[in-house]
């Protein structure tokens, strides 16, 4: 999933063990149980932690490339979603939640 760099950083700041790499990439522990979800219109889509930990970076399977990356290629107000929503086979652009990341259930 490609997001504006600030949004990607905000999300990874809430994932234990996540680390920033160069060019908007991040690592997450391969065994992460982090819960990440997106709300589109009124539907909540949970990202399976196995999809968040996209590909192992080491032979031991300790650190994985995150499936969420920051990119200036996407407009600052859009997210490009091409993975994670496998149960829906969804691919499309979502409005950015800049300034709205976090738990919005109480709103």
Q: Which properties best describe this structure?
A:
Cathepsin D, subunit A, domain 1; 4-stranded antiparallel beta sheet; 107 residues; 34% strand; two-stranded parallel sheet
Word description of this protein:
There is one protein chain. The protein has 107 residues and is mainly β. The chain has one domain: Acid Proteases (Cathepsin D, subunit A, domain 1, Beta Barrel), CATH 2.40.70. It is built from two helices and ten strands, in the order E-H-E-E-E-E-H-E-E-E-E-E. It has helices spanning 5-12, 49-52; strands spanning 2-3, 19-20, 26-29, 36-40, 43-47, 53-56, 63-66, 69-70, 78-81, 92-95. The strands form four sheets. Strands 2-3-7-6 form a four-stranded antiparallel beta sheet. A two-stranded parallel ribbon has the order 1-8. A two-stranded antiparallel ribbon has the order 4-5. Strand 4 and strand 5 (43-47) form a beta hairpin. The longest helix has 8 residues, at 5-12. The chain is globular, with a radius of gyration of 13 Å.
């Amino acid at each position: 999933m490609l997001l504006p760099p600030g949004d990607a950083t905000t999300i990874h700041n809430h994932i234990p063990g996540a680390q920033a790499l160069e060019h908007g990439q991040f690592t997450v522990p391969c065994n992460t149980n982090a819960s990440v979800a997106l709300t589109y219109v009124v539907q909540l889509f949970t990202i399976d932690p196995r999809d968040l930990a996209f590909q192992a970076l080491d032979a031991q399977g300790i650190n994985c490339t995150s499936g969420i990356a920051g990119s200036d290629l996407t407009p600052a107000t859009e997210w490009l979603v091409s993975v994670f929503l496998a149960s829906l086979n969804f691919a499309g652009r979502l409005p950015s939640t800049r300034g709205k990341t976090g738990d919005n259930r109480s709103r």
